[in-house]
């Protein structure tokens, strides 16, 4: 069970915190970031901090799409990069005639990016994923953190 399921307590722990280089090192802080931000929104026993997801594909053909979204700023009127990434990927699959069963999501996060903003993006990811009835199988394939101004997320 995820210790971060109490939303109010979890959100209170995010106030004033930012993403650091340690969150991208693949160790304890990476696991904590995945648990605190992503796993808190996507309660899926298959969502782990492993480097790959193991899926049982449906019978027949399977369409796979990976896309990257770079938006500056990450928040804009009508949405944020979370909404754009889910809607864009679902659109790509739909254009192929596929039903989006599983989604992956990779983040490139700048050091200093506010955890509260990352939380907002994860919430939109959850809402949009539920809308299309997909399962998020990988929250982070690789977390890279750049040392710059701390306001970018792609």
Could you write a compact summary of the structure shown?
The protein contains 4 helices and 4 strands; from the N terminus they run H-H-E-E-H-E-H-E. The protein has helices spanning 7-14, 28-39, 81-95, 115-131; strands at residues 75-76, 79-80, 102-104, 135-138. The two termini are 29 Å apart.
Tell me the layout of helices and strands.
Elements: H1 7-14, H2 28-39, E1 75-76, E2 79-80, H3 81-95, E3 102-104, H4 115-131, E4 135-138
Parallel strand pairs: 3-4
Antiparallel strand pairs: 1-2
Helix pairs in contact: 3-4
* SSE string: HHEEHEHE
Instruction: Provide the residue-averaged pLDDT.
Output: 78
Shape: globular
Strand-residue proportion = 5-15%
Structural class: mainly alpha
The beta-strand count equals 4
Distance between the termini: 29 Å
Largest sheet: 2 strands, antiparallel
* Low-pLDDT segments, ≥5 res: 138-150
Count of alpha and pi helical runs:
4
Helix content: 25-40%
The rounded Rg comes to 15 Å
Strand order of the largest sheet: 1-2
Describe this structure in words.
The protein has 154 residues and is mostly helical. Helices cover 34% and strands 7% of the residues. The protein has four helices and four strands. The protein has a two-stranded antiparallel ribbon. The longest helix is centred in the last third of the chain and has 17 residues, at 115-131.
Looking at this protein, list some descriptive labels:
single chain; 154 residues; mainly alpha; two-stranded antiparallel sheet; two-stranded parallel sheet; 34% helix
